[in-house]
Each structure stands twice: as structure tokens, then as C-alpha cells.
Amino acid sequence: MRLTILVSVLILGLVAAELPLAEKCNEELCKLPNCRCSSTNIPGGFRPRDTPQFITLTFDDAVNVRNMATYREILYNRKNANGCPIGTTFYVSHEYSNYHLINELYNQGFEIALHSITHRTPTEFWAAASYKDLKEEIADQKELIAHFANIPQESIRGVRIPFLQLAGNTSYQVMADHGLEYDSSWPTSEILNPGLWPYTLDYASIQDCPVPPCPTASIPKPWVQPMLSFRDTMGFPCAMADSCFFTPVVTDVDAWYKLFIRNFERQYFGNRAPFGFYLHEWYLESQPGVKAAYIKFLDTVTRLSDVFLVNHGEVLDWVKNPVPLNEYMKKPCRSFTPTNCAMRSCHAFEPNNRKNYWFDICTNCPRLYPWVGNPLGA
Ligand SMILES: *[C@@H]1O[C@H](CO)[C@@H](O)[C@H](O)[C@H]1NC(C)=O
Ligand SMILES: [Zn+2]
């Protein structure tokens, strides 16, 4: 009897460690709002012309005084054609971030998402990361940001792993277990025209895997918001708009503008899969011509009545409960709970790297600099 129990426990343990392999997606079983097969089908079965064209602007890495000047200049007070303020999602890494400024971005209605505590190198660390590594780097970062920027934990929904380097199943297991709703780390350079729409991992993904390892297990809950690559001037794919190889000369604003528009039109005149415009702020600030082209692009698309620049999480809200364009246009603008920031400038030590940091936050100064394994700096 005891032996039977022991054997059962052992077998259960082995079974629990091995995730079920994802099977070919079954459209009958996989239905919205919580399951969607990976496909280029438009959610809700709408025709392209009845589908809102979403654009998601994103910026990665630490938020500081320098890049904040650019964000204020190009993003604040900008509206979609329907009169609602545009969205932008900031994939924030912790080291050197200013939480007073992150609070300001949140209070502008923008989305704050996760990009790890350390953003450490080498890339191989992220490819081989364990469940514990990713729990401490990503899941704990939600608590860290919510605390020091004084923003609601529920407002933090998305993840982008540094260097877009997934660790296969493990990355999504951590997201599933810690209430992280979506990932934006997985590029596709093949499913662009028509484009791949967001989907869940209950069933096997049809997406190409330019940065292996990608997940192959069935992992319900988290959504993949695939990163549809740009194509550079020679047609080669670039996962981020600032990682293209063949580009116009930096001073040729018009050529850059045309490059952006050409990429946008692939989706807009196609199946209207969300168009992601993924950048690092330094790319614009170090190349005024590219920045001018980016601003010109924003000026153009915010005049189109069927185009909506929204937070990344808002795309998912629509995909889960799709409504046709004419109905979407009448929706009220997004709302959020404003929060305050009683700013404090702190100075604290980080014992692992033996480094001192100066940083601004919206709470009392912590004893130590917040870090992996000690996200509140206690
Ligand atoms: C993911 O899980 C599946 C199913 O258990 C397994 O076959 C595959 O090797 C795993 N992939 C990685 C990268 O761990
Ligand atoms: Zn980064």
C-alpha cells in the first residue's frame, strides 16, 4: 500500500515536470475570449475594411531624464483621428530607471510593461534561463514597478524579454503562473502578408522561430502578440524597426518616411493585423532625420479614421472581444485610475554588484537598491 502511494507520487512528479506537447489547433475547441488559434484570420471574422487598424508604438529599456524629453516631445498631447489620446507601451528595465518619470508616463495614459530587472548580458543567459531566473527577473519586476512608481499592479500586463530571447516553454510558464497576460518578444519574419494576429498557446503555434528556443508545449492563459517584422530597403526582415540593416541615409527624411509607410501599408492594405512600431529612444535622438520621419509618420496615421494608436494591452482587449470598426469608433476613450507621486531622491547600495545607485521613486527610500531576489530593496 505504502509502496503504491510512493510510486504514484513519483509518477505524478514526473508527469508534472513534463508539459503536454501542444497539438494542432482545433478551431471548434479553441474559442475567444480565452483561446485563439495562431492564424492570419481576422478575429470576429470581419472583412479587413470593417477591422480597426491598430498601431502599437513601443519603447524599450530604462526610463530616464534624457529619453523622457523625447517622449514628452513626440507622444504627449497627440490624438488619434477619433479624438482619443494615442497609446504607447514602455517595456521598462529596472536598472537606472527613474520611477517618478514612470509614474508620469502612466498618468499620461500610456502602458507600463516588463523588460526585466537587470537586462543582463549575455543573451545566452535568457535562452537558458530557469523558471526561478525568470520569476525573479520578470514576475517580481511587476511588484517592483508598481511599488516604486506607485501604479496599480493590474495595469502591468505585458512582457518583452531582453534581446527578444525567449527560453522556450519556461518564459510562458512563468507568465501563466504570475498573471502576466501577454508577451511581445516573439518575432515573425514569415507571416507578414497576410499578418499573424495575436493568439494563445493552448495549441501548437504556426509561427516561425527566428530566435530559438520557442515554446512547443500547451500553455494556456498567456497571449502571444507576435512581432511582425519590418522589411528594410532590400526586403530583409528586422524584428525591431531600429534593427534594420539596409536603411536610407540618415539625413533622407523622405526615404525614411516612405520606408515606414511601406511597412505600415503591408498590414493596412492586407488583413489589418496590428502594426507594431518597436523602437529604442536613442535611435531617434541620435538621428534627427529618422526622428523627423517618425513624427511625419505619426502625423499621417493619426489622420486616418480607421487607424488607432493604442497601448499594446488594448489590442488584446479588442482581439478577445472583437467589434466591427463602426462600433469601435464610437467607444469612449480609454480610462485609467490616476495616481500621485510624492517624489523622493534616494541613494542605495546593491550588494551583488557592489554598486551605488541614485534614483527617484514615489515611496520611502528602500534600505538597498532593488534587485533580483530583493525587488523591494528590503
Ligand atoms: C517544451 O515542452 C515540450 C512538451 O513537454 C517539449 O517537447 C519541448 O522539448 C519543450 N521545449 C523546451 C525548449 O523546453
Ligand atoms: Zn532592451
From TrEMBL:
Keywords: Signal. The keyword Ligase does not apply. The keyword Repeat does not apply. Residues 1-17 form the signal peptide. Pfam families: Polysacc_deac_1 (PF01522). One of its GO terms (biological process) is carbohydrate metabolic process. It comes from the Eukaryota. InterPro entries: CE4, Glyco_hydro/deAcase_b/a-brl, NODB_dom. GO terms for molecular function: hydrolase activity, acting on carbon-nitrogen (but not peptide) bonds. Residues 51-182 form the NodB homology domain. This is NodB homology domain-containing protein. It comes from Spodoptera littoralis (Egyptian cotton leafworm).
